[in-house]
Specification:
- This protein has helices at 3-12, 14-42, 53-80, 90-99, 104-123, 131-138, 159-162, 170-182, 194-206, 226-236, 246-252, 280-283; strands at 144-148, 184-190, 220-223, 240-243, 258-262, 274-277.
- By secondary structure, it is an alpha/beta fold.
- β4, α11 (246-252) and β5 form a beta-alpha-beta unit.
- α2 (14-42) runs antiparallel to α3 (53-80) and α2 (14-42) runs parallel beside α5.
C-alpha cells in the first residue's frame, strides 16, 4: 500500500477518534459540574445556586477549552509529523495486503485515551488541606466560639466526675489551639463545687491550653445550672457554639449563627444552622465530615 493511501486511511479514522474524545470531554464537564454542586452542598452555610450559576458556567467553559486543547494537540501534532516509509519486503507486503489496515491509528487513539484519563485523574484527585485551612473553612471565618468542656475538651462527661478528676482529651488539643489562633474562644461548664473548677483549670494548664496566649483562664467560665450556660452563650453572642446537649442546642438555634452538636451517635439536624459530629476533631478531619 502506498504512503498516500496510508495517510488517507489514518485520516478516515480521525472522525471516530475525535468523537470519542468529545464524549470523554463531555463526561469530564459533567463530572466537573457535579463536583462543583457537591462541594457547595458540603459548605457549612447555605449558597444560592442561581448566584453561582454564571461562575460555574465560566469555569466549565475554561475547563472545556483547556482539555480540548490538551486532548487534541498531541494527536494532531503526531499526524503532521512525516512518516518514514518502511523498507518494502515480501512478508510486510503480504501482511498489509491481507489485513488492508495499519495499526498506527489504533495506537495513536489508545495513547490519546490514556492521556485523557490521566488528566481526569489529576483533576479529581482529593485535595489535602492543612488543619488551619480546615478550621477556617468549617467555621466559615467565624471570629468568636463558645464551647462546652465536658464531653468535648474533657474526657469526663458529668459534673460529678469533675469532683474527682479532670482530664483533657489529647486528640482535641491541637484542634482547640488551632481554633484559638484566629477565634476568640470561651470554654464553659456546669460544676457542682469550686474545687471542680480548680481541677478543670489545672488540667487545662497542664495540657498547655494557656501557653499559646490566645486562650486565658479568664475565658473559662463556670456555672451551677444548664440555664447558666445558655445565659453565657446568649450574652457572648458567638458565631459558633459547641455543646453536647441537644436541648441547649435547640434552645439556642434561633439566636446563634452556627452550632455544633457533639454526640456519640450522629443526630438528626434540628435546624439548618446546626451540625453534628461524634467529636470535635472529627468535625475538622475533612470536608466530607458534616
Amino acid at each position: 500500500m502506498s504512503l498516500a493511501a496510508e495517510v488517507t486511511m489514518a485520516e478516515s479514522t480521525s472522525p471516530s477518534s475525535n468523537a470519542a474524545k468529545e464524549d470523554e470531554l463531555a463526561d469530564l464537564i459533567h463530572r466537573f459540574m457535579d463536583s462543583i454542586a457537591e462541594y457547595s452542598d458540603r459548605l457549612p452555610f447555605a449558597i444560592d445556586r442561581q448566584k453561582i450559576r454564571s461562575f460555574t458556567t465560566l469555569a466549565a467553559l475554561a475547563i472545556t477549552l483547556l482539555f480540548a486543547w490538551k486532548l487534541l494537540r498531541a494527536p494532531s501534532e503526531q499526524q503532521r509529523r512525516p512518516r518514514r516509509r518502511p523498507t518494502p519486503s515480501a512478508s510486510n507486503s503480504n501482511t498489509r495486503t491481507r489485513s488492508g489496515t495499519t495499526p498506527f491509528p489504533e495506537v495513536c487513539s489508545s495513547s490519546g485515551d490514556s492521556r485523557a484519563q490521566d488528566a481526569v485523574n489529576q483533576l479529581f484527585q482529593p485535595v489535602k488541606l492543612t488543619l488551619e485551612q480546615l478550621v477556617r473553612h468549617k467555621l466559615s471565618e467565624g471570629r468568636k466560639v463558645t464551647c462546652q468542656l465536658l464531653g468535648v475538651v474533657l474526657e469526663e462527661t458529668t459534673p460529678e466526675e469533675l469532683q474527682k478528676h479532670a482530664t483533657v482529651r489529647p486528640s482535641v488539643l491541637e484542634v482547640l489551639l488551632e481554633i484559638s489562633k484566629f477565634c476568640d474562644v470561651y470554654l464553659m461548664e456546669r460544676i457542682i463545687d469550686d474545687e471542680s473548677g480548680e481541677k478543670v483549670l489545672s488540667a487545662l494548664s497542664d495540657a498547655g491550653v494557656f501557653t499559646s496566649g490566645s486562650l486565658i483562664k479568664d475565658k473559662v467560665l463556670f456555672c451551677s445550672t444548664e440555664n447558666g450556660r445558655i445565659s453565657f452563650v446568649r450574652q457572648l453572642e458567638p458565631d459558633w457554639h459547641i455543646d453536647t446537649s441537644p436541648e441547649i442546642i435547640h434552645q439556642l438555634a434561633r439566636f446563634i449563627k452556627y452550632q455544633l452538636l457533639i454526640s456519640p451517635q450522629r443526630a438528626e439536624r434540628v435546624a439548618s444552622n446546626v451540625f453534628s459530629s461524634t467529636n470535635l476533631e472529627q468535625f475538622f478531619g475533612g470536608l466530607d465530615q458534616r
